[in-house]
């Protein structure tokens, strides 16, 4: 399975680089592929949060709903579709790349703890976290290529360091809560990334805003 994930990521990047170096291929084709990968990443993170929720006490939820504490919350981003449609193409690409790169370290932390998580589906969760890492890496590489075709502003990346530490806690509830909190933050940001790329794809294809 790991070999299949790696092969899929390499194939995705091979296609992106091949298309990017071919001037006859429009940018909307490249954005279609990037948008497809971001959609996979968001769908997988959504499924993972449901997997975790199936084995968590309802009393734990209030403590975990803290989106303002996500380490990426310091980055100003559009709050809804209407605001997103007002942002330039280059700025949307910069935001997507900034959010994606901010998750490189936290995804490693999630991966390191997934296999020992006090959850009956920990093996499945661990495999899915590895998938998320692969998707994030290949999408990031693809966006690096795309940003190079969109001008200097698209290549600007805001640094969003993670200061949450690598320890998820010592008792069962603490580990599950912190793991779920990180994953919920990632799901939130992957939804933003997916939304930004869908708007970019629609604009490149000259679709009406209401169809994006």
UniProtKB/TrEMBL annotation:
Residues that span the membrane, as ranges: none
Subcellular location: Secreted
InterPro entries the UniProt entry points to: 4_helix_cytokine-like_core, Somatotropin/Prolactin, Somatotropin_CS
UniProt protein name: Prolactin
One Pfam family cited in the UniProt record for this chain: Hormone_1
N-terminal signal peptide: 1-24
Gene3D superfamilies per UniProt: 1.20.1250.10
Native source species: Kryptolebias marmoratus (Mangrove killifish)
Family: Belongs to the somatotropin/prolactin family.
One of the protein's GO biological processes: positive regulation of cell population proliferation
């Amino acid at each position: 399975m790991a070999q299949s994930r790696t092969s899929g990521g390499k194939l995705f990047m091979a296609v992106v680089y091949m298309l990017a170096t071919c001037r006859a291929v429009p940018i909307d084709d490249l954005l279609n592929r990037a948008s497809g990968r971001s959609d996979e990443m968001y769908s997988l993170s959504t499924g993972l949060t449901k997997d975790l929720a199936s084995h968590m006490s309802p009393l734990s939820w209030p403590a975990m709903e803290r989106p303002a504490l996500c380490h990426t919350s310091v980055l100003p981003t559009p709050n809804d579709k209407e605001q997103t449609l007002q942002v330039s193409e280059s700025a949307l690409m910069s935001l997507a790349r900034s959010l994606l790169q901010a998750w490189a370290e936290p995804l490693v932390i999630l991966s390191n703890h997934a296999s020992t998580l006090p959850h009956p589906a920990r093996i499945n969760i661990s495999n899915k976290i590895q998938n998320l890492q692969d998707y994030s890496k290949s999408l990031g590489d693809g966006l690096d290529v795309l940003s190079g075709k969109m001008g200097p502003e698209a290549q600007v990346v805001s640094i969003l360091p993670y200061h949450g530490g690598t320890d998820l806690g010592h008792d069962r509830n603490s580990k599950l809560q912190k793991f779920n909190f990180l994953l919920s933050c990632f799901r939130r940001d992957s939804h933003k990334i997916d939304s930004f790329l869908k708007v970019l794809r629609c604009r490149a294809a000259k679709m009406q805003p209401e169809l994006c």
